[in-house]
Amino acid sequence: MQASAVAVITEEIQNDVVAALHAAGVGHLTRVIRRERGDIATQLRRAGVDVDLVPASVLEADRIVLVSPDARNLETACVMLQKGATSAWTLNPGDGWQAVDDETIEIAATRELPARPPVPTHVSGRTFRRRDLRRRHRRTPAASSDGSTPS
Questions:
Q1: 125-to-45, 62, 101, 131 alpha-carbon distances in Å
Q2: What are the residues facing 4 on neighbouring strands?
Q3: What residue spans define the domains of the chain?
């Protein structure tokens, strides 16, 4: 089993949760599992999740989100909770299913995270080059080596 994050969601918030996961950089790892497409446990098993200790609320849910494999599974679970998931879990090899609650979120918020690059700001496309290095307008004749324009 690989590190993963699982959350129970409703149909109304599915688009918000998936959009937030894409914004968090794990959208390509996201899978929405719906009861109408088959048994939840069977779909989780096909996705590579150990289903021996699955919480009952996951098996009874109509719709869940699985993000796997996810090295930042705790942060991902927190994002899903912030977007309206009713409950969330992290799965780690050897640890099994760990519920994400307020205490876990508080610990995650105090943990040191790698620095993020600064948000890019608008930079004018205009450049100020030396006169001899500037591009000339296509209808302007090129200057000769002595600086005069040909006639």
A1: 52, 51, 47, 17
A2: 91
A3: 4-110
CA trace torsion 56, 62, 68, 74 (10° rounding): -60
Average pLDDT score over the chain: 77
Helix H or strand E encompassing 58: helix 56-60
pTM (2 decimals)? 0.64
Q: For residues 80 and 4, is the Cβ–Cβ distance under 8 A?
A: no
In CATH, the number for domain 4-110 is 3.30.70
pLDDT digit string (tens) for 16-66? 888 888 888 888 888 899 988 888 888 888 888 877 888 888 888 889 999
Dihedral sign, CA of 23, 76, 18, 13?
A: negative
How far, in Å, CA of 27 to CA of 103, rounded? 26
Q: Where are the beta strands (DSSP E) in the chain?
A: 4-8, 30-34, 63-67, 87-92, 96-99
